[in-house]
Amino acid sequence: MNQIVELKDVTVSYRENVALKNISLNIEKGSFVAVIGPNGAGKTTLLTAINGIGNILSGSVKVFGLDINSRIRREIGYVPQSLSIDPRSPISVRDVVMIGRSSKIGLFRYPNRKDIRIIESAIELVGIKELSHRPVGHLSCGEQQKVALARALAQQPDIMLLDEPTSNLDLRSQKEIIDLIDKIYQEKELTIIFVTHILSHIPASCREVIFMKRGCIIWSGGVDKALNEKLLSDLYDCPIKEIKKEYV
Question: Topology of 1-75+159-169+182-248 in CATH?
Answer without folding.
Answer: Rossmann fold (3.40.50)
